[in-house]
Each structure stands twice: as C-alpha cells, then as structure tokens.
Amino acid sequence: MATKLKRKSFFIDERELEAARRALGVETDAETVRAALREITRMKALARFMDKTRGSLPSGSFSP
C-alpha cells in the first residue's frame, strides 16, 4: 500500500518538537511528526488490547 502524504502548515512549540525528536531518536521535523503519529497510534492500539484482555489471563501466567 502506497503512503499518501499531505502537506500541512501549522504552528508548533519548538521545545516540544526538539524533546520529541530526542525521545524518538529521529533527525528531522518531518520524521519527528511522522514517528510521533505512529507511536500514538501504537499506544492507543495497545491500550485497547489491554482493556479487551483485562482479567482474561490466569493469575501468575505472566512474569516479567
């Protein structure tokens, strides 16, 4: 599936952008925004999975 890109123009806090860049380990503004969007989508999917499976594993079946 081909990626569809769309140009956007908006204001963003440069300190937050730089903090996100460091946290995500990317180099450009565009990479930072794309990686942050992927990460929040991944986190939401994980939260849905956790909600869905809460209480379905027997106690002690998972140990870190």
Element-by-element helix/strand order: HH
Largest sheet descriptor: none
Q: What oligomeric state do these chains adopt? A: single chain
The number of E-state strands comes to 0
Helical fraction equals 55-70%
Low-pLDDT runs of 5+ residues are: none
Radius of gyration: 17 Å
Structural class: mainly alpha
- Mean pLDDT rating: 91
Q: Tally the helices.
A: 2
Strand content bin: under 5%
Anisotropy-based shape? elongated
Distance between the termini: 36 Å
Textual characterization of the structure:
This protein has 64 residues and is mainly α. The protein has a domain of 37 residues. Helix content is 56%, strand content 0%. It contains two helices and no strands. It is elongated and about 50 Å long. The termini are far apart. The mean pLDDT is 91.
Keywords:
64 residues; mainly alpha
Provide a quick synopsis of the model.
The protein has helices at 14-24, 29-53. It has 64 residues and is mainly alpha-helical. It has a domain at 15-51.
